[in-house]
Structures are given as C-alpha cells and as structure tokens.
User: Fold this.
Amino acid sequence: MRLNNKKLAFVIVWTICTEGRAYPQNTRDTLQPLVETSAQRFAIAERVALAKWDSGTAVEDAAREAQIIASTTKAAESRHLDAAWVSNFFRAQIEANKLVQY
Assistant:
C-alpha cells in the first residue's frame, strides 16, 4: 500500500501520540473529536501550502511554532492535562502538516 503525504502525516501523528498507550473504549470516544479535528487540519494543508507559495512565505516559521507550543502547553496545564503529551501532539501536528506542505 502506497501512502500519500497526507496519509503518512496522519500515521506519524497518530503513532507519536498513541505510542505505548492502550485506551479503553470510552477514552477512544473522548478522543474522537481530536482525531476528527486533526483530519480536518490535514485536509486543508495543501491549501495552506498553496497560499504560502503564492505569498512567498516559508513553510517553516520557528517563532510561530514556538508560540503555538507555548500556548498549548499553558492551556494543558490550566486544564490539568499532561503538558508533555499535549506539546508532543501539537509538535507532531505541525511536523505532519509541514510534510504535506513540502
């Protein structure tokens, strides 16, 4: 089976975020909105790439990525979530989208 960039990116994100975890059914149900939102984000990645291409903007923006990670980590802590897990999840999302954009 040959994977296109979108599928590969999704597999990478999913693998990073679920590595070593076994979730009961109710947790999978709870994570469903997150998975759907991730899929929607991948669905627009090609359009984001075209917009960046047309405007001459680079795919990578380290400062913006750092802002996003800091923001999500702070939000995770305020909601008593595992900040490292949330940070890793969003880093993986960013990296997967960059793969699609390249």
